[in-house]
Amino acid sequence: MNTSVNLAGINMKNPVTVASGTFGYGREFAEFIDLNKIGGICTKGTSLKPRSGNKPPRVYETPAGMLNSIGLQNPGVEYFMENDLPFLKKFDTKIIVNACGSSIDEYVELAKVLNTLDIDGVELNLSCPNVKAGCMAFGTTYEGVKEVTSKVRKVLDKPLIVKLTPNVTNIVDPAKGAEDAGADGVSLINTLLGMSIDIHKRRPHLANNMGGLSGPAIKPVAVRMVYQVAQNVKIPILGLGGIVSGEDAIEFILAGATAISVGTGNFIAPDTCIKVVNGIEEYMKKYNIEDINNIIGTVQMN
Amino acid sequence: MKVNIKAKIIKKEKLKDDIYKFEVQAKEIVNSAQAGQFIEIRVLDNIQPLLRRPISIYNINKERGTLEFIFQVKGKGTNILAKREIGEELDIIGPLGYGTFEVKDYEKVAIIGGGIGIFPLYELSKELKNNTTTKINMYLGFRNKEYVLLEEEFKNVSDKLIITTDDGTYKIKGFAIDELKKDIEKEKIDKIFACGPLPMLKAVQDLAKEKNIQCEISLEEKMACGLGVCLGCAVKTASSSKEAPQYWHVCKAGPVFNANDVEI
Ligand SMILES: Cc1cc2nc3c(=O)[nH]c(=O)nc-3n(C[C@H](O)[C@H](O)[C@H](O)COP(=O)(O)O)c2cc1C
Fold first, then answer.
1. Beta-ladder partners of A198
2. Cα(B149) to centroid(ligand 1), Å
3. pLDDT tens sequence across B65-82
4. Which residues of chain B neighbour A73 with C-beta distances below 8 Å?
5. pTM for the complete prediction?
6. Which of A291, A302, B199, B229 is found 20 to 30 A from B258 (Cα to Cα)?
7. How many CA atoms lie within 13 Å of B230's alpha carbon, on the beta-carbon side?
């Protein structure tokens, strides 16, 4: 049975990665699970300089999901290089650095640094809904995505995956922007912009008012978008949004994802990603699937 | 070391209409748990409610390999938790938090708590009483007589126990902090420990600063992972400015903080 896949030039032992912002830089989860068992780790969104994030409260639970407005708090790429990368290198899993910036120049400067590091790929975050400048500001149009991606592409030799926001009318537009700019893959979806109100105080629950919705609640939206993108672009897809089981992962793969990420599922139980790996294998056994690659994008529409 | 275990419920007590005490078998957690730490409970093996509930440890029972926690029914999660029964297994991660109460020999300490915040102070006081030479003054504030809970237990782990009720239906009428203020004028207190509602913690913080007394406070903030990765449970550092705020996280630097380190 073969579970290994090639995502945008990254050879992974299985299609399961963990999503940016839900796994830190791996350290906390290494206390609970064997990181060697997962295909890859998408790191916390990392910027050129440290960022302190938004005011609390930053998280709020919603039906089968949660809102967050962390605001990309991270220690910056230099700290990552010195402290987290050496730790991650000890494991046999692919390291994909989620990169974020507030301006095109910042994305390019960051990509130059990342290009010198011993990492397996870069996930360009053009989709965080929780920061004022940058990120989602570039991610919602064909032109915006194309512009940032092509400038980053010029300085980055490593596999480049562009992470897309679902907060658009047509998800195919930004996906095409990434493809036309020379990206090796796209990942989707980031969180859906949402809001929840404390009716007693008559104020939003989050200090930032709005935040990104994640978790099982968003899974059908994510599966639909992965399908639409798969129908319209040729580069491979890293699919995510609400995955907590092997069955969930298979849905994304059938819709057209080459690999998947477990995000909010990591908060439910520290070993969710391992359960997803096992669940995929069980499905393959049950249906006599020799190679996971054989079922990518094979959903038969009614 | 943090572990994720299935912990059998061996005792369940309804302390009040909306307040429950559970005792669970949790040898692996108890082995390394410290006063001030918390656990994260998945109330059901389900995606609804999605997140675990962080709950403070009330009592670490090393000999029996059990731990006790007390919670108030506030929303969906705690409502379901309250319906879990003896014999069932609870999915628990713990012990969590790196900032713990500092248990060592002091001359005399003041432990002050209010409402549901009194419970994490029990383990602290018990450890100070059993393992150190510290004299312990304890100040507990409750809404009314109805809500005065576990008075005997707290009495057994302190040298002087002062109870206040907001409405005066039991013992002293008023706030616990006012009783602490009076005593600080007469007695030499070399450390304050506090847990409870925000206004009380702020008052304690101010008092400790004014009197130049070391002070540790236990904080809460909305939390998702409890492990230090989601960065949800942020608390502003005292040293950072309003314009360029910096944050600690309750599940990582806390839940117990040096009162001078945080702005609440
Ligand atoms: C607390 C939290 C922090 C996140 N931080 C990032 C981030 O730094 N960069 C990023 O690209 N996505 C971030 N995300 C989005 C996730 O990576 C993922 O795209 C989204 O949550 C949907 O997947 P899920 O439903 O499996 O969580 C974050 C999500 C959560 C819940």
1. A203
2. 42
3. 999 999 999 999 999 999
4. 231, 234, 247
5. 0.95
6. B229
7. 30
